[in-house]
Amino acid sequence: MTHERQYRLADFDYELPPERIAQTPIEERSASRLLVVRRTGGPAGRGSLEDLIFSDLLSLIPAGDLLVINTSRVRHARLIGARPSGAPAEVLLIRPAGDGTWVALGKPGSALAPGKRIALEHGAWIETVEVLADGHRRVKILGATAEDVMSRSGRVPLPPYIAREPRPADELRYQTVYAKREGSVAAPTAGLHFTNELLDALSAKGVVIAGLDLEVGPGTFKPVEAEPIEQHPMHAERYEIPDRLAALAGEVRRIGGRIWAVGTTVVRALESAADADGVVRAGPGETSLLILPGYRFKVVERLITNFHLPRSTLLMLVSAFAGHERMQAAYRHAIEQRYRFYSYGDAMVVI
Question: Which of 125, 171, 255, 340 could join 345 in a cystine, given CB atoms 3.0 to 4.6 angstroms apart?
Fold first, then answer.
């Protein structure tokens, strides 16, 4: 990886008024605002920006291009229980550990010391087996299966910046309309703006749509603290590239089409699954790819994304794709124009 300059954490910071953090989704998914960021045609600034509505994406993606979506579904992985004292405790089940236990996070941390138990509804318990090196816990569920516990008692794990408890509407709105297999603890939020009608219209136009599965983990919300930023310990996420997607990626590039990624999760999966020549390999994998400015993108040529937290690896990835100065200008514009930010907020497309 080569870098155009040495970036510091402060280069990815910005001030966001708290009222700009979307706490609820708007009524119609595809009516979100869409900030178009053009990477060509002059210096970074207002001339490279355009304010549209998400449904206008139909006019931006040409026939023959490939739109790649992340079809992962969010688990009801947030469990509320009680310690032996009766005090509350919370556990977030992240992924199976492969031996009947689960990798998890919880609070307070003292409630998840090895050997301690948290009582759940319907006679089930969570017992901590060990504390892992990264601070995660390995836990086992007693008295029920993990699937039963999440089905009966689990809650949608809304992001920490949404300052309310989940509501019935979140059951639908914090999932994409194309979500399939459960595996994520956070939604691939760039996809939340799509409706079935918009997807049908894109297909009718001749846009090719294909999915992959990347299990979004809680590390997506973790701010970067390392300096230099290259030393940030990137979280690993599992992905699966279907044979159909790998074949389509090769065919679209062969005929001169572009590959559009819906979200940073799709970017990381595609870039991790590709060889040095940009050929996408089918099959399962795990990515801990940290994309910083200076990274040479091998596969992705267009990006649809939401607005991201300051000092986050997601903002760094988008800055690598669009250019740091151009992305800084785009965020200043979005704040001035009162865009809604983060998971339930508005969208951006970088072309």
Answer: 340
